[in-house]
Specification:
The protein has 289 residues and is of the alpha/beta class. The protein is 42% helix and 14% strand. It has two domains: 3-72, DNA polymerase, domain 1 (Orthogonal Bundle); 111-285, 3-Layer(aba) Sandwich (Rossmann fold), CATH 3.40.50.450.
């Protein structure tokens, strides 16, 4: 597939990846896109497109620049429906056409997200580290968001015994927070991946974070909320996971009247509460389809 055209189509909003691939099949050559009009794309799709914005010629120039930047930053991407693309992620309502990554992909059938607040209690931090380490020792890829607090501890724990992946709200060369550049390097050195739906040069804008969270949960069989207040990004991830029909669990060590009020709410709604010393192998058997 033409990488420049894939990058062009990836930036088109309001289209499902299957529709984008249909356009690529219909118009497979770059020369086609130099003369195409929006009406041509709508005719191929059989419906109107909401996203107009820059002309197709302008988008083509931007995508050619994206392609150069990918090589410059040693990045690659998975393509929706093709080898390497996270299988479960392709089943959510709005998967990205492309998933950008750094690292060396390895086949791994089991993914679990460990998420929580940036401002956890000391007990929750320790529990997140231990949980990450235990899950990784059982062969699970621990997935989180590279943030301070629970994310950081889950990644660090997983690196003791296995592999961890990190989803960013920026492009993958733009590690945020900057203080976690060494952690990102450790993740890559440990065989993990840094992932994003954003092409090179994209900053971590505020509205990117909830969008990122749908990918973090969508990739995984289960999401474990270590500790989070009711209003937090981690709670958004947990709610999205429920909508995606993923297993959502709450860690007992993170239950706290304030810092863990979100976990308490989920537990009241029926989410399963586990502790870090639980028989995780037995628990995890129930997460697989």
């Amino acid at each position: 597939m033409n990488r420049v055209l894939l990058l062009l189509l990836h930036r088109m909003e309001g289209l499902h990846p299957a529709e984008k691939l249909k356009l690529l099949q219909t118009f497979p050559a770059i020369e086609d896109w130099k003369s195409l009009q929006w009406q041509d794309l709508e005719a191929a799709l059989g419906r109107r497109m909401a996203d107009r914005g820059p002309s197709l010629a302008q988008r083509l120039a931007l995508s050619e620049s994206d392609c150069i930047d990918l090589e410059k930053h040693h990045q690659d991407f998975f393509i929706y429906g093709k080898e390497g693309y996270p299988v479960l992620l392709g089943e959510i309502p709005d998967p990205p056409l492309l998933v950008f990554y750094r690292g060396i992909p390895r086949n791994a059938p089991r993914y679990v997200a460990v998420v929580g607040t940036r401002h956890p209690t000391q007990a929750a931090q320790q529990a997140a580290f231990e949980l990450g380490a235990r899950l990784a020792s059982l062969g699970w890829v621990v997935v989180s968001g590279l943030a301070f607090g629970i994310d950081r501890q889950a990644h660090r724990g997983a690196l003791v015994h296995g592999i961890t992946w990190a989803w960013l709200a920026s492009s993958v060369e733009n590690i945020t927070p900057k203080a976690h550049v060494p952690l990102a390097r450790a993740i890559l050195d440990g065989g993990g991946l840094i992932l994003s739906e954003h092409p090179p040069g994209t900053p971590a804008l505020r509205h990117h974070f909830p969008r990122r969270n749908r990918l973090l949960s969508g990739q995984c069989q289960a999401v474990i909320l270590v500790q989070a207040p009711r209003k937090s990004g981690a709670m958004i991830t947990a709610r999205l996971a429920l909508e995606q029909n993923r297993e959502v669990l709450v860690l007992r060590e993170g239950l706290h009247p304030v810092a863990g009020s979100g976990g308490l709410a989920l537990a009241e709604e029926g989410a399963r509460v586990i502790d870090v010393s639980a028989n995780l192998e037995k628990e995890a058997a129930g997460w697989m389809p």
